[in-house]
Design a protein that fits this description.
Layout lengths: L20 H8 L15 E7 L6 E8 L2 E8 L3 H9 L10 E2 L3 H12 L7 E3 L34 E3 L1 H11 L16 E3 L5 E4 L4 E4 L8 H13 L13 H5 L23 E8 L4 E5 L4 E5 L11 E2 L2
Parallel strand pairs: 6-10
Antiparallel strand pairs: 1-2, 1-4, 2-3, 3-5, 7-8, 8-9, 9-13, 10-11, 11-12
């Protein structure tokens, strides 16, 4: 009988019951774990508990070398899941992804793996930063070495007034439609070949091509923590951009997606959170649909997220 027979996950042939979140780093990142993986395209599947939300939940992970994706949520009895989490004892704040125990394994075998009933399996869409189409950019090994001068942008969280933002836009000549519409900050993007990220060789920043749906600031910070735990695109140092870093993506002209940003980026994140609060109050955002920085009350429903790394 096929695993998840009749569901979109029917191509999964087996579950690795020995794999846990802790083992994945050694196996798929440092090559020093329980076995050396020789096939870069290999994918294994294992169950784990995601305890980041208000209630823990069982998920099915798809894992490979520099690849991690939660493909399904399992509707396991909450009392079983809670008991499994309680067995972990006291854990650090960033250790909220747990292995399953024998009790939960038995339930999964009986109610998910060895049954044709897939009603307890919720297949998930690709997570934050889905695999996207061709970026239209050169690959990292194809890019012209004749680059504009590199620029180190301010990367710290900041409290900024209107005058501070104007000074920042002017200093770096960002193409900000209200404060500097004739500005032009020249990027040099290259495709990293993973369908997830691009790198700007001018700033040294690696950018997520996709991003999060609209959510609160606290929720978007949790998403960054989750991405780092699951090593999105193979890395664990993703963060919200500074306001300067987010402004550096602004283009002088709109793309075919009607946004002031390179078309390699998803248009589903029209304005994003940045690590900048406003003096005397509120939060700053960068809006790619209007091509500007704007501020709003910290109590509004939220914004979108697009993460970067400075590695």
């Amino acid at each position: 009988m096929s695993l998840f027979h009749g569901s979109p996950l029917a191509n999964i042939s087996t579950i690795d019951w020995e794999m846990t979140p802790d083992y994945t780093f050694g196996t798929y990142e440092s090559w020093g774990g329980k076995e050396r993986v020789r096939d870069m395209k290999e994918r294994i599947y294992y169950f784990f508990i995601d305890a980041w939300g208000e209630e823990p939940k069982v998920c099915l992970m798809e894992r490979g070398v520099k690849h991690a994706r939660v493909v399904a949520e399992i509707l396991a009895p909450l009392e079983l899941v809670r008991r499994c989490v309680q067995e972990q004892g006291k854990v650090a704040f960033f250790e909220r992804t747990h292995p399953i125990n024998e009790e939960l394994k038995s339930w999964l075998i009986a109610n998910v793996v060895e049954t044709d009933d897939d009603s307890k399996v919720i297949v998930l869409n690709p997570p934050v930063g889905p695999i996207m189409g061709d970026s239209g950019l050169p690959g990292s090994d194809e890019a012209d070495l004749a680059l504009p001068p590199t620029v180190r942008l301010p990367d710290a969280s900041a409290e900024m007034s209107e005058d501070d933002v104007l000074a920042l836009v002017t200093q770096y000549n960002f193409a900000e439609q209200e404060r500097n519409p004739q500005g032009l900050f020249v990027n040099a993007f290259v495709d990293n070949g993973d369908g997830l990220t691009v790198t700007d060789r001018v700033t040294g920043l690696m950018w997520q091509r996709g991003g999060t749906d609209i959510m609160s600031y606290r929720a978007v910070c949790r998403e960054a923590a989750r991405m780092n735990l699951e090593r999105f695109a193979g890395f664990s140092d993703w963060c919200l951009p500074s306001i300067a870093e987010a402004l550096s993506l602004l283009e002088r002209e709109k793309s075919n997606e009607n946004q002031y940003i390179h078309p390699c980026f998803s248009p589903e994140q029209p304005f994003i959170f940045v690590e900048a609060s406003r003096r005397p109050g509120g939060r700053w955002f960068v809006d790619y649909k209007q091509g500007r920085a704007f501020w709003a009350s910290g109590t509004i429903p939220g914004g979108f997220g697009r993460f970067c790394r400075r590695g």
